[in-house]
């Protein structure tokens, strides 16, 4: 039972914020692609896929960072960093989660399967980008946003231009909140040589996070206009904008604890946008 608990912690099942942050844009895409009526089978596959791939992503991330995490205050007690599990166990778990996810996606159409392969590569490569790429948060954003074209492909058999606009919005949103997250570890990351947008942006961090948040909202606004969404949708965006302003307030002094609170607040940002989408389709005449 103790080992099972360590596996759960390795998959971050005790910290579901990552599941929510991946699930909300997936739900945005499913509802937008289906005009508010997603196929039940597709819905179940994508919800389970979110849990599986977020868990697999955490496992491979901790495998890649197993020699770095012991030197970071926030991560030093993770199962691999603390040597309560070994690298072989992590790789077996990653393979098992990936195979289950593959089994699910094989029940969907061919285009979705091909996109899933590309998404798997994005997930696998991301942990190693932090060694060389100065903006790994953008790569993570693309990884998290990849569920958008997949959802459109599963629901409609194609990926229209509006799907890529949603993809851009999700990429920017993810990069913004993960930069906030990286602000928590900035000092430790500088010591051990890990790249992040928080380090690259320096004193411009708050301004550039704000710019990405604004571009996210503008992109989502264009989505609403393109799909002729109405008041409920834009009310959801207005609430999301207020939450972005609140996050800016929290990170004003770059205090790590407040930055972490701002990161967690993005759960409500994603929820607000989804509720706006769902209500807009629910109350259409």
Protein architecture, described:
The protein is mainly α and 285 residues long. It has one domain: UbiA prenyltransferase (Tetracycline Repressor, domain 2), CATH 1.10.357. The protein is built from 14 helices and no strands. It has helices spanning 2-10, 17-33, 40-64, 87-105, 110-129, 136-145, 147-156, 161-184, 186-192, 197-201, 205-226, 231-250, 256-264, 266-282. The termini are far apart.
Question: Topology, please?
Answer:
Layout: H1 2-10, H2 17-33, H3 40-64, H4 87-105, H5 110-129, H6 136-145, H7 147-156, H8 161-184, H9 186-192, H10 197-201, H11 205-226, H12 231-250, H13 256-264, H14 266-282
Short description:
This protein has 285 residues and is an all-alpha fold. It has helices at residues 2-10, 17-33, 40-64, 87-105, 110-129, 136-145, 147-156, 161-184, 186-192, 197-201, 205-226, 231-250, 256-264, 266-282.
* The number of domains: 1
CATH H-level homologous superfamily name: UbiA prenyltransferase
**C-alpha termini separation:** 53 Å
- At CATH's second level, what is the architecture? Orthogonal Bundle
Along the chain, the helix and strand elements come as: HHHHHHHHHHHHHH
Total strand count, please? Answer: 0
Whole-number radius of gyration? 19 Å
Helix content: over 70%
H/I helix tally: 14
Largest sheet: none
Stated plainly, the CATH topology is called: Tetracycline Repressor, domain 2
């Amino acid at each position: 039972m103790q080992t099972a608990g360590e596996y759960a912690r390795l998959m971050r099942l005790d910290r579901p914020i990552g599941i929510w942050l991946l699930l909300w844009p997936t739900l945005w895409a499913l509802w937008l692609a289906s005009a508010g009526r997603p196929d039940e089978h597709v819905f179940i596959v994508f919800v389970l896929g979110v849990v599986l791939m977020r868990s697999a992503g955490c496992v491979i991330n901790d495998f890649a960072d197993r020699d770095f995490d012991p030197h970071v205050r926030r991560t030093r007690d993770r199962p691999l960093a603390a040597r309560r599990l070994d690298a072989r166990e992590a790789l077996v778990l990653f393979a098992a989660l990936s195979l289950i996810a593959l089994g699910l996606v094989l029940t969907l159409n061919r285009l979705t399967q091909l996109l899933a392969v590309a998404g798997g590569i994005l997930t696998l490569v991301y942990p190693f980008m932090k060694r060389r790429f100065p903006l790994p948060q953008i790569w993570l954003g693309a990884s998290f946003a990849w569920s958008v074209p997949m959802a459109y492909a599963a629901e409609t058999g194609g990926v229209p231009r509006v799907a890529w606009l949603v993809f851009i919005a999700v990429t920017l949103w993810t990069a913004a909140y993960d930069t906030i997250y990286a602000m928590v570890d900035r000092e430790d990351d500088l010591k051990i040589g890990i790249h992040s947008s928080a380090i690259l942006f320096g004193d411009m961090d708050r301004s550039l996070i704000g710019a990405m948040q604004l571009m996210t909202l503008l992109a989502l606004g264009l989505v609403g206009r393109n799909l002729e969404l109405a008041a409920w949708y834009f009310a959801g965006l207005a609430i999301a904008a207020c939450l972005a302003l609140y996050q800016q307030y929290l990170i004003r002094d770059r205090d790590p604890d407040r930055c972490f609170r701002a990161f967690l607040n993005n759960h409500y940002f994603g929820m607000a946008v989804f509720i706006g989408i769902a209500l807009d389709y629910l109350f259409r005449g």
